[in-house]
Design goal:
Elements (H helix, E strand, L loop, with lengths): L2 H27 L4 H35 L10 E4 L12 E3 L4 E6 L2 E6 L11 E2 L4 E3 L6 E2 L5 E3 L8 E2 L1 E3 L5 E4 L22
Antiparallel strand pairs: 1-11, 2-3, 3-4, 4-9, 5-6, 6-7, 7-8, 10-11
Bound molecules: FE2/S2 (inorganic) cluster.
């Protein structure tokens, strides 16, 4: 069931629960003395309303968390595994992975996954093969192969994404924006050693 469907189901079940409890209150209020009936009816109506509100609130909260939780795999926001065959040779052309919004680059120090969003104002930064640079089309920020800023209004190097090298030579990139590696400039420690 999709998160939206879960939320709608929660709303419907909360509405139904409220009506069932309200009906129970009316039925119970049909017995006993007038004063007792009045008290009982008020009490049940209050409890029914409270119960329905709690159910609706809980379902909406669960649906919202489900929608926003970045635990997808194979898509931006989650872990993405790239086959070893796609890891560039040292100083080879960056491997562009649109689903994860990153480039894989490979230097003597190891591999990096560079988030392709410009750290100036967020434009997508292409690799310009003829210049061997990442050049932002919006305001002209230029970055080296390793992500370091060369010039332009960008305040720092391109952001990196955490990389794990797997036993079979593939790599897993954590594309959760909350875990981005922000740095002023590239240092060798930013790269993950890689041997196929
Ligand atoms: S958004 Fe890239 S230089 Fe402004």
């Amino acid at each position: 069931m999709t998160p939206l469907a879960r939320t709608l189901t929660g709303l419907a079940s909360g509405w139904a629960a409220g009506h069932v409890l309200g009906l129970a209150a009316r039925l119970q209020a049909g017995h006993g003395s007038t004063a007792k009936k009045l008290h009982s009816r008020r009490s049940f109506t209050r409890n029914a309303a409270l119960g329905a509100t709690m159910i609706i609130t809980a379902e909406i909260a669960i649906g919202t968390v489900w929608l926003l939780w970045p635990n997808k795999t194979g898509a931006f926001g989650g872990d993405i595994t790239v086959a070893g065959i796609n890891v560039p040779e040292i100083d080879g052309a960056p491997f562009r992975f649109p689903e994860g919004k990153f480039y894989l680059v490979h230097t003597d120090d190891g591999i990096q996954a560079l988030y392709w969003k410009c750290v100036h104002l967020g434009c997508t930064v292409p690799w310009i093969a003829g210049s061997s640079r990442f050049i932002c089309p919006c305001h002209g920020s230029i970055y080296e192969y390793n992500g370091s800023r060369i010039s332009g209004p960008a305040p720092r190097a391109m952001d990196g994404m955490p990389v794990t090298v797997n036993d079979n030579g593939s790599i897993t990139v954590n594309t959760n924006p909350a875990t981005l590696i922000m740095r002023n400039t590239y240092t060798p420690a930013d790269a993950t050693p890689y041997t196929a």
